[in-house]
Design goal:
seven-stranded antiparallel sheet; 17% helix; 13 strands; alpha+beta; 4 helices
Amino acid sequence: MCTVSWVHTDGGYHLLCNRDEKRTRRAALPPCVERFDGVGVIAPRDGDRGGSWIAVNQRGVTVCLLNGTPRPAPASRGHLLLSLTSVRSALEVCERILRMELGPYAPFTVVAIEPEKPVVMVDWDETKRFRTDSPGPLISSSFDPDGVRAARHREFSRMAAGGITPHSLYSFHESHGVQPGPYSPCMHRADAKTVSFSWVTVTQQAMSFFYAPGSPCRLGPGGTTHCSRN
C-alpha cells in the first residue's frame, strides 16, 4: 500500500512515496547502492521478503510498485520490481513486464519515471494494462480503496492548488487532511500506518534517495544515499 507523487524539473524530477503497511511487519532495510546486471541501483529492502517497492538506477530511471487487490500468490512482487531496475528507460519497464508471465503474482501497479519523458504505468489484475502520463498521485489501499483514493486526491488538489512543486508534494505526503486516519495521506490505523517516507531526486548529474522510517508527520532520523548518473 503506497501513495506516490512526482513532478518533473529541468533535466530531472522528484518522486515521493509513502509506504503504508501493517504494524506487525518487520522494519525495512534502508537504501544502499547495489548492482543489478552491472547497473548501480539505490533501493530499500523489505524486512520480511527481501524485495523492494521503490528503486532508482544510475540511468535516472525510478521504478515504484503499488499493491493491488490482496490475494494469495506464490511469487513476490517486490522481487519482480528488483528485476526491472537495470532498465535504460521507463518505457523498457513496461516492455519487460508485458513480456512476463504474471500469473504467480498478486495484482499490482508499477510506475516508472525518467527525466523529460512521460510517466508510464502497467497495471496487472489478471490482465495487463499500459498507461502513460497520469497526472498523479497514485494511491493503493486495502481499506476502502475507492474512498481512500477519493479522499487523498481531494487533499492533493488542495495542497497543489498553487502549483505542483516539490514543496507542495511534501506537504501532501505529511498531511492528515481532515484528521489522522485511514483516509489521510500520512496514514494512521490501529493495525497499520505509514511506515516510511522516500524522496527520490534526479538531476542531470546525479540522483539522491532520502529515506526515513516512520510516518512523515513524525520523521525520525533519516538518511540520504547519493549516486552519480551514468
